[in-house]
Amino acid sequence: MDCIFCKIVKGELPSTKILENDKVLVFQNINPEAPVHILIIPKKHIESMNDIQDEDLLLIGEMHKAAKEAAAKLGIADSGYRLINNCGPDGEQTVFHLHYHLMGGRRLGALTG
Ligand code: 5GP
Ligand code: ZN
Fold this sequence. Notes:
A hairpin with a 7-residue loop joins strand 2 and strand 3. The protein has two helices and five strands. It has helices spanning 4-10, 57-73, and strands at 17-20, 24-28, 36-42, 81-84, 100-104. It has a domain at 1-40 and 50-75: HIT family, subunit A, CATH 3.30.428.10. The relative contact order is 0.22. Helix content is 21%, strand content 22%. It is an alpha+beta fold. It has a five-stranded antiparallel β-sheet with strand order 1-2-3-5-4, with helices on one face. The termini are far apart.
């Protein structure tokens, strides 16, 4: 399967890791749009938010836990941050391996769409 995030999980592509456990990987976005812009992914390949199954619900919780732990590790837990999932064409999803963007380190402004 030709998935760049699966390749990052397997170590076939480089990444700057923030946190890792057996289920979840958190790494720097290659093209950051904020002082902190990291990606939270499940190690399991799930294409998008639309493909989450009941059996994945614990894993989704693990992603949220890793997100808040990464925010704390990067020192932005108290200043705050934003967690975003882009799904499908209207969501501007470009990598079809489920991920959350965690952005912070500055005031992000109101959501504009
Ligand atoms: P999407 O638009 O699918 O929600 O976001 C995909 C994100 O993945 C983009 O913000 C992009 O900068 C990031 N990205 C794409 N390819 C790579 C890569 O090879 N390494 C890293 N670290 N980030 C990537
Ligand atoms: Zn994948």
